[in-house]
Amino acid sequence: MRPSLLRTASQHLRRRRDYSSSAAQPERKVAILGAAGGIGQPLALLMKLNPLVSSLSLYDIAGTPGVAADVSHINTPALVKGFMGDDQLAEALQGADVVIIPAGVPRKPGMTRDDLFKINAGIVKGLCTAIAKHCPNALVNMISNPVNSTVPIAAEVFKKAGTFDEKKLFGVTTLDVVRAKTFYAGKANVPVTGVNVPVVGGHAGITILPLFSQATPASNALSHEDLKALTKRTQDGGTEVVEAKAGKGSATLSMAYAGAVFGDACLKGLNGVPDIVECSFVQSTVTELPFFASKVRLGKNGVEEVIGLGELSAFEKEGLESLKGELMSSIEKGIKFAQES
Ligand SMILES: NC(=O)c1ccc[n+]([C@@H]2O[C@H](COP(=O)([O-])OP(=O)(O)OC[C@H]3O[C@@H](n4cnc5c(N)ncnc54)[C@H](O)[C@@H]3O)[C@@H](O)[C@H]2O)c1
Description:
- By secondary structure, this protein is α/β, with parallel strands linked by helices.
- It has helices spanning 3-24, 40-48, 64-72, 89-93, 117-134, 147-161, 174-188, 224-235, 237-245, 253-270, 314-340, and strands at residues 29-33, 55-60, 79-84, 98-101, 139-142, 169-171, 199-201, 208-210, 276-283, 291-299, 302-306.
- Helix 5 links the parallel strand 4 (98-101) and strand 5 (139-142).
- Helix 2 packs across helix 10 and helix 6 (147-161) crosses helix 11.
């Protein structure tokens, strides 16, 4: 084919692709539960900026009318509505494709994620009971900590309601990936935008296992000591922020960013965009643990494939073995809470 004809054909194809993607884009409703909080507000802002969102439902026990009025003035297509209190939860959820949950209390200095357990477990249980009733087919993105327990709690609530679909329940561990990418890029001195680092396991302390041996672009500049330090910094990233905020909460802005990245990936998957892969804490057979974070391929029904761990370094293998006990007991704690309460 002549170069000019080739050019015309490829331009035509590109136009067709552009047209088909915009014509086929379905209406999507996203609900944020806990939308007036430290994470909820910037997350509401970021989801309002997402062109895949047509309706944005902001729910909290207090403060949502103000947040919704504020965010609704932004001149992007998503239609924003605020909902406040139990009476309005059903309407907030009806028709939702994706529900993002940052409701709960954050960690204060000296508090572990497990200290939060009792309060947040109750909140998550209540919200998931409502999800099972009002939008049982939605993808649920769990941000409320401790994620290692709140995801099993949600699964139990959905099982009890007869609506559980393991493809649609996600613990959001994206902040661990975001941190691992940032810290790795800084240490390896590579541009952060091109960096990828899978993070597996769970979402608290040593259960967070970044796989720097699989980081891209690979770096020869990092010693074993560097990799150990990067691993520890990724695991302690939450504490770094809690201490720096000195009593004023935990990560909110970076978490909102991470939540928005994961929410966007879920929407793209639902819309049939191919090759959407993110790490997430999901029901899993990758290890003997019933829930585990690893790379997950997202599709039209949520999880399309839970991707295996790939090859691990000796250090990572050791980390994997030592996280299993703690992760399993957090999972069991969640299941027990949901079954007994
Ligand atoms: N997954 C992660 O990586 C990650 C990172 C940081 C924080 N977190 C967790 O996210 C949660 C929220 O943190 P934050 O800093 O935004 O806290 P925050 O206290 O600022 O906000 C929490 C919001 O939840 C609301 N809320 C409480 N009970 C509710 C209910 N029953 N229904 C709806 N909303 C309710 C509160 O009114 C508040 O607006 C905490 O559990 C925190 O530990 C998770």
